[in-house]
Structure formats: structure tokens, C-alpha cells
């Protein structure tokens, strides 16, 4: 699959690298051409260029930019992104009085705002729950099971494409419904990251129901 990546930071580098290892053709695009070239070289990407180059590269586009930048960025490329699957991996998280909170006020998601900004793009929320270091693992696996990757969106074709990308990385697709549910995926990230920062392990809060003795 041909995948354009908007951005040159941590998620662009590690997710892009994971997709290159999975056999996909990746083009890294950035505002800074030198940074895009460096990132592309580091991960063995097929090429590098501008943000516009990445937006037009293939059927899948990863928006690996800060949450507050995403909607305005895709708005500028709305025409070229029409019909493409745009994957939002950002987390709109800011410090609050009681810990991390969503900068969106928990009433909407960045993915929804991106979809509104580029209405003909097929926006999917995915890959936002793990630290970027997880995507450097050849096959993310924990306690003998492949990593599950939650994702949600409204377009069936975009969901199928995203599931195929997840599977190609050795992970398990975890569909979570329509794009209206992206706010819950983002809120889950706020909860989990807050727990990690406090030194806790959030996965212990979700035991498998069948594990309980009756």
C-alpha cells in the first residue's frame, strides 16, 4: 500500500517505520524538507517531500501532527484528500486541575473536527493509545497475544483499509464503531496516559471477565 505521512515527529517515524517493515511504500512529507528527508532515510521510506506531496501520495494518509494542528492542516488539503483514508493518531490532551483532560472539552474529537474540515476525506481514528516506542517492535505482542489496535470511522472502505494496515503490522484490529466514538478513544488515552504518569498500570483495571472465579 502507498501511504503518505504528514509530519516528521515521533509517531511519523515509528509508525512509518513499522509500515515500511510490513512492506508498504511510505512517503514522508513535512514543512521542513530537510527533516522529511532525514526521517525518510531513517525508516527506509520510498521517498520524501512536502506536506502536499504526502497528502497526494496514496490511498492512505497518516496525520502525524499535534492535535491542535490537525484540523486546519487537513482543511488546507481538503481537495486532494477527497476519497483518501486519513488516519488521525493524535491525542488532544492537556494538563488540568485533576490530571490530564481533553482540550476538546470531551464533547467532540479531533478526528471529528478533521472530518468536518475535509468533508470528502474518509477519516479514521487509530494508533493513538500506544506510546510511539511500541511501534518500533517488530511484532508488538504482550503476554503471548498480539497488540490490539482500536480504530473507528464512518466509511466501511476506510475501516477495511485501516484493519488491513493493522494486520500487516502483526497486530489485531479492534473496531470501535463510528467516528462519533472517537471521543471515547481519545478519552481512554487521557485516562491511560495519566495513570502511567502517576506510576500506575491501567491495564490491570480491565481484567477479562471470564478470569473471575464464580
TrEMBL record:
Query: Which residue range or ranges hold the Pyrroline-5-carboxylate reductase catalytic N-terminal domain?
Result: 2-92
| Key word Oxidoreductase present | yes
Q: Which InterPro entries match?
A: NAD(P)-bd_dom_sf (IPR036291), P5C_Rdtase_cat_N (IPR028939), STEAP_metalloreductase (IPR051267)
For this protein, the record's Gene3D superfamilies field holds: NAD(P)-binding Rossmann-like Domain
Recorded hits in SUPFAM superfamilies, A to Z, give: NAD(P)-binding Rossmann-fold domains
Keyword ATP-binding annotated:
no
Q: Which UniProt keywords apply?
A: Oxidoreductase
Identify the domain of life: Bacteria
By what name is this protein known?
NAD(P)-binding domain-containing protein
Q: Which organism is it from?
A: Streptomyces cuspidosporus
Amino acid at each position: 500500500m502507498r501511504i503518505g505521512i504528514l509530519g516528521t515527529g515521533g509517531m511519523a517515524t515509528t509508525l512509518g517505520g513499522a509500515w515500511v517493515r510490513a512492506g508498504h511504500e511510505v512517503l514522508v512529507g513535512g514543512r521542513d524538507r530537510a527533516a522529511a528527508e532525514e526521517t525518510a532515510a531513517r525508516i527506509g521510506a520510498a521517498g520524501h517531500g512536502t506536506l502536499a506531496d504526502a497528502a497526494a501520495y496514496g490511498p492512505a494518509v497518516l496525520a502525524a501532527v499535534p492535535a491542535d494542528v490537525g484540523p486546519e492542516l487537513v482543511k488546507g488539503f481538503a481537495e486532494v484528500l477527497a476519497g483518501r483514508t486519513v488516519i488521525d493518531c493524535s491525542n488532544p490532551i492537556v494538563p488540568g486541575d485533576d490530571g490530564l483532560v481533553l482540550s476538546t472539552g470531551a464533547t467532540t474529537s479531533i478526528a471529528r473536527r478533521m472530518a468536518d474540515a475535509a468533508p470528502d476525506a474518509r477519516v479514521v481514528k487509530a494508533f493513538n493509545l500506544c506510546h510511539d516506542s511500541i511501534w518500533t517492535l517488530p511484532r508488538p505482542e504482550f503476554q503471548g497475544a498480539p497488540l490490539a489496535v482500536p480504530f473507528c470511522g464512518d466509511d466501511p472502505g476506510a475501516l477495511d483499509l485501516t484493519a488491513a494496515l493493522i494486520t500487516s503490522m502483526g497486530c489485531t484490529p479492534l473496531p470501535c464503531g463510528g467516528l462519533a466514538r472517537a471521543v471515547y478513544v481519545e478519552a481512554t488515552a487521557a485516562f491511560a496516559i495519566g495513570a502511567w504518569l502517576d506510576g500506575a498500570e491501567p491495564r490491570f483495571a480491565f481484567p477479562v471477565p471470564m478470569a473471575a472465579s464464580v
